UniProtKB/TrEMBL annotation:
Matching Pfam families: PNPOx_N
InterPro entries (UniProt xref): Pyridox_Oxase_N, Split_barrel_FMN-bd
Species for this entry: Wansuia hejianensis
Superkingdom assignment: Bacteria
Segments forming domain Pyridoxamine 5'-phosphate oxidase N-terminal: 12-134
Protein name: Pyridoxamine 5'-phosphate oxidase family protein
Amino acid sequence: MINKQMDIGELRNEVNDFLLEHKEGSLATSIGNIPRSSPVQYFVGKNMDIYILSAGGEKFKAIDENPNVCLLVNTDYINHRKIKGVQVFGKATTSLKDNSIFEEAKNQYEDNYILDKEKDNLKVIKVEPDEIVYLNSVVDGDRTKQVLRLNDGDVKVIHDTVEHKGKFNINPT
């Protein structure tokens, strides 16, 4: 069975609902051409912007050097055919570079008491998504990906072209 292709509104709602159902992900950054991935907690703001509260770390140096990031949020990994998740590709800015991001996050966070109490210890990363890849293969193993392009209002569908018959074949013919 092939996943139903969603229009931009349906896909946007599906992605937004999924992101709101979760709060943890992995943020991929790159510094000096070396990729890294950091576990993070996030919340969703206006326009599907992602806010990450953090005590600090190398990811801030990486974002300063290269603002292109990817946030992966997914369900438990059952196997390569049964997973649901999103990859959020976008540009990141930090409260170290722009103080207004902290206030912006505070205005959108459900528990801004924590931000007030911990403001000297917390930093904020804001990710403005350009493209979000959505995959839901939990029910039937169909790995059709749907890509939401936020800047140009487009949806693209990518079908899994490898035929799987019981065993994983690294070199499909």
